[in-house]
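Incident review: delayed structure delivery

Summary: a single-chain prediction request sat in the queue longer than the usual turnaround. Root cause was a stuck worker, restarted by the on-call engineer. No data loss occurred. The affected request and its eventual output are reproduced below so the record is complete for anyone auditing the incident later.

Affected input:
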Amino acid sequence: MIANTLLLTLAILIAYGFWLLDQLKFMARYKSVLFETYGMTILVCAGILFLNVFAAAFALQRRFLLKDTGRKLSHLDKQFQTGEVHMPVPEDSEEGE
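Output delivered after worker restart:
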C-alpha cells in the first residue's frame, strides 16, 4: 500500500511541477538568482508538500481501498479458531506417495 501511495504522490507532484513550469516561464531568466537565494526554502517547502500529499493519499487509500477488510476476512478467522481449515495440498507434494 505504501508503494501505491508513493507512486500516486510522485505522479501528482510531477504533474504539479510541469504545471508550475508552464505558469512560471517568465521567471526562467532569473532561475540562477532564485535558486541561490531561495534554494533551501524551495527544497524545504517541496519536502513538506511531498509529506502532506503522501499523507493525504495514504489516508484516502486506507479509507476507500481497505473498506470492510475486517468483515471480509472474518470468515477466515472463524475457520482458524474452530480448526476446520481445509488447506489445498500442492500437486507436487510427496505425502500421498
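Verification: Residues 2-82 form one domain.
Action items: add queue-age alerting; document worker restart procedure.
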